[in-house]
Amino acid sequence: MLFNSLAFVGFFIIVTSLFFLLPHKYRWLLLLMSSCYFYMSFLPIYILVLGFTIVIDYFAGIFIEKSEGRKRKLFLWLSIITNVGILGFFKYFNFINDNITVLLKLFNFTNPVQDLSFILPIGLSFHTFQAMSYTIEVYRGNQKSERNFGIYALYVMFYPQLVAGPIERPQNIIHQFYEPKKFEYDRVVIGLKIMLWGFFKKLVVADRLGIYVNTVFSNSYHHSGLTLFTASMFFYAQIYCDFSGYSDIAIGSAKVMGYNLMENFRRPLLGTSFADKWYRWHISLYTWFRDYVYTPLARKARRNRFKLLSYVVLIFTLSGLWHGANWTYILWGFSAGLSIVVERIYQDKVRPHKYINRWWLRFFGTIIPAIIGCIMLVFFRAPTVGDAFHILGSILSFKGGNLFKGTPPINFYYCIIAICMLFTVEVIQEYYPKIKLINNNSVVIRYGGYLLAILIILMIGVFNGGQFIYFQF
């Protein structure tokens, strides 16, 4: 069930209405059943995979809490290996097998193992990482093991963030399922506003840009460097609005019922450095790798500068692999980590703030990482490494061409309008928070803002854009 569908609108209204009508003690059961229905609307059979990991991690958490010494670590690793093993089987088996086949061919051997044919369970990487957060936090003593199986299952399956995050920590969300929630008009309105902005990002910006981006990237060998660069710039905005739009709808729908999910995006397009942009992008994944992978490694590095910078590249490379079983994602992650390392070395050696005005430093710190980030995203978007290098070569050739080739000019103009509206709103949110439209104290301005946003969505929104990009991860 896609958030950008009428089916979800009906689902949301029914579930939310029943939630407030039912007594508190039955609400967790309603949410769990609704989440199961939501997940099974994609591919029902994979609820068994999710259920298996939930059972394993539920008991692992209890045994970790009860045990001491090596047994605690044993149960933790049992949980991690189970989760990573399932993720690896479904997501990376064919990738690994294909690379083994290529390697064996170099030595004139044949790989007897055939690729498996199945569909990747939707959102597998997200709920796998969320499940691992639970057992790790129990092991560290930051979270008590959850004895109510239904509540733990709901922690993993809570429908707003089940298939594309945010990747929650148990300390943030589990206790909220025990807290009675009242219907509060102001909170409900805030949640609906967040959802409205999410729908705007998805329907008006992401899916509108997607028409142009898909047309160009699907025929990359027939487009000029200028067109490919434009498509790459559009893709940067597209993937941001697609994913952050989902996060906004998830956060908003949970907020309506009284649940607070963590912030997942903080206007990353306005970040003033490579590092700042990544601090603001997919915050739940960034902090997951930081807390569970980078920090333990950094503690052992003992301030070894080379090791610490190497770990940054490693973390981002793993993040790339997390996104997909393809060398394109690995190269994208590696290049992202490398860009941060180069930036840190440059800042330490040159210290540009001593020579450049702060305003210009912020300006170039926003523009340059954005342009380079768009170019790096070619690896993320291109189907193969060969296609990615062809596109990069074409972009760096600086050859002009017809920007409208294969796509209606009117759609291109809509794309520009959509991007301008996005940046206008985000610049106001970032630098001029006192300027308010849908949060204005004036009823006329506030409801005028609601109406304007809805009209824009209806007029230039794309309602057949399909699923969210991050569903495939």
From TrEMBL:
Q: Which InterPro entries match?
A: Ac/AlaTfrase_AlgI/DltB, AlgI, MB_O-acyltransferase, MBOAT_fam
List the molecular function annotations (GO) for this entry. Answer: acyltransferase activity
Where does this one sit in the cell?
Cell membrane
Which top-level group of life is the source organism from?
Bacteria
Sorted UniProt keywords? Acyltransferase, Cell membrane, Membrane, Transferase, Transmembrane, Transmembrane helix
Q: Cellular component per GO?
A: plasma membrane
Q: Report membrane topology.
A: Multi-pass membrane protein
Span-the-membrane segments of this chain are 7-26, 38-62, 74-96, 116-136, 306-323, 329-347, 359-380, 410-428, 449-470
GO annotations under biological process?
alginic acid biosynthetic process
PANTHER family in the record = ACYLTRANSFERASE, PROTEIN-CYSTEINE N-PALMITOYLTRANSFERASE RASP
Q: Could you tell me what this protein is called?
A: D-alanyl-lipoteichoic acid acyltransferase DltB, MBOAT superfamily
Species per Swiss-Prot/TrEMBL record: Parafilimonas terrae
